[in-house]
Structure formats: C-alpha cells, structure tokens
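Handout, page 2. Input:
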Amino acid sequence: MAVTIDDIRAAARLLQGQVVRTPTEHSRTLSEICGCQIVLKFENQQFTASFKDRGAYVKLASLGEAERKSGVIAMSAGNHAQAVAYHAQRLGIASTIVMPNGTPQVKVENTQRFGARVLFGGETIDEAAVFARELAQDEHLIFVHPYDDEKVMAGQGTVALEMLADDPALDVIVIPIGGGGLISGNAIAAKAIKPSIKIVGVEAALYPSMYQALNALPPKAGGRTIAEGIAVKTPGKLTFPVVRELVSDVLLVDEADFERGVQLLLNIEKSVAEGAGAGALAAVLANPQRFRGKRVGCIVTGGNIDPRILASIIMRGLVREGRLVRMRIEIPDQPGVLAQITRIIGESGANIMEVYHQRTFSALPVKSADLDIVMETRDMTHVRDLMNKLTSAGFKAALSSAAAGDMG
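Output:
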C-alpha cells in the first residue's frame, strides 16, 4: 500500500500541538435510538471545523523551501479549502483555492478569512479540479489534492489512532466517503491496530462513485445534496485500492437521512454537523439491523454548514416529528366559526402561529372556505387527538404538510 501504519504514526507525531486532539464520546441517547453503542469522534471541533486540518498540515509541512515559495493551490467544496488556507497562512505559504459554484457562503468566507485567493470553477469537485490543475500549471503552483495524496491520507488516518486509543472496544468504524482519503487512511490505521475491526463507508445516494467502482457499475452521479463535502464523481486512484481491500461495505444514504443525522446531533449532542459530517450517524440510523448490538464508531467529519440550511433542517425536522403542523380545515363561511375552531385548538394545548382564510382561491362552494392553520404541537399523538376533536365538532380537517405521511 502507498501508506503504512508507520506513515500514519509519523503523521500523528507531526500533528502534536498543531491540530486539536478531538474527543471520542459514547452517546447514551443515540445508542438507544440506533440499537447499538454509538461512539462519536467530534472532528467538527477542529479549528477549521473538520478533519481536513490533519491531512492539510501534514502535506504542507512536507513541502520544501522552493515549493513553499511557489505557493499552493487546492480544489475543495470548503473543508479542505479552509484547512489548506489556514495552515498555509500559519506556514507563510500563499494559497489559491478553487471552489465549485454553489459552495455554501460560510465556507467561502471562512476560507477568505485565512488569506486565500478564492476562485470558482465548475458545478462539482471534479469540474473544479480541472480548472485548478490548469491554473496550477499556468502559475507554477503546487497542487494539494484533497484526498489522492499519500501525505494527506496519512494525516487523515490519525483519526483512527485516537479513536482506538480512547475506545479499544470498537467493533466497527463508519466513515463518510468523498474521494476516499479519510476512509483509506483510517482503514489502514484501524486494521493495523485491530485486524478484527470492520470499516464501513458512507456515500450520498446521489454521488455513489466509490460504490459504483467497487461493484463495477457504470458511473452515474449528480444532483443537489446537503452532503456537498462528499459529492465526488470519481474515487481517488490511490484511495480506491485501499477501500477495495480493507473496507467491508459502502452504504448509500439519501437526503432525508442526512437531514435526520444533522438534526439528532444538534438536538441530542448539541453539536453542529454539516450534511457529510452527519453521514456516519445517518447510515447507522438508516441500517439499524446491520449495526445492532455492535460498538460503532462514527466520525463527525465536519461542522461547516450554511446557517440557512441548518435553519431549514431544524424546521423540517419539527414538521416530521409533528411538532410543527399546517392543518387545512373546511368550514362554513359564517360568523363565529373561526372563534369555535381556535377555542378547540387552544383547549387542546396547541399554539397557533399563522392563520390563512382562503375564500377566493378554493374549489369549495361559495358558502364554504378553507382555513389553513400553522400551529405548534407536542407530537403526532397530540396532532391526532386535535384532529379527532375537530372531527367530533363537525369539521373536516387534514394535514397539508410532510407530517401527513406520519399519520398512518
């Protein structure tokens, strides 16, 4: 293999005092939800809020004096960008970062804050890479690959060294996959320390590049994902053989599960994770039987999420849980009816937030109207009770939200 356990241990020594030794914590509540013992590695607590700090520093620290004077360039959706920019600034190296169009603004601003020149090119990491390679050649810059680099892989592999030092009883480590730098480095480290341990990868269902390569499937990827950090269409040339040899399986996660992972980490662990950062937990949540009874290490890879996306995930989560609902009630258009309905809702303990009285834009007879009410409720049981009370009072009520799917 291109990278050995000795390389990873050397990287760990180099990283001492340069990056955060992040905590490895058992989660009692998530363990109850998932049906297995969940152990979280909080890489979102690095200075740039992702594991990328590790590989970026190891790579940059390996550059010679002439290479440092030339400057470096990297392509990234954000986390590798921030890590390269931050450590380049610390080491006195000029940095240029190429980002895909649509990269969350919080990642752009944080990268610029570290003194990097930020340019945009392409819609994906792969398209940004083409532009970055051309610019590197034109301007004689040193290209720092986000995953297909031995130094980067060794740096990322130090996560597993810390996890197994903190919790040697781990049966499996679940790791998100973009190009494969994180999972390959950690698979090498974990398997060298504990050969019996299983390594399971996670990809976004919209970008299953490693899964397709492993299963000899035609490459097909694309679409908008909140896990943009792992939206990679082509696995690494160095990382693929390692994954093929050492990784037990690659699980595909859909967007709803990524959202749920982000929400649970926030609600239960009070920890902010981006979509890809919650990928390991999302995979366990979506495949409970596979991990039942196991001690499962989940790397929370990053926390650089756009605040607007996070706010949307929180609100959508409240809808799924039945804590925020929009109910449509068919009413006779006559005085006193609205007061009757609001009284029923108030007595049930729900809190009305918004009311829309639809007369003109309705298919109902002219003497009827649609009443759309947005309200805060406790859970779906509370919602069912409220709907039963409205039905008993002679009103036809239905949910007009995502929560309607949970009523069955």
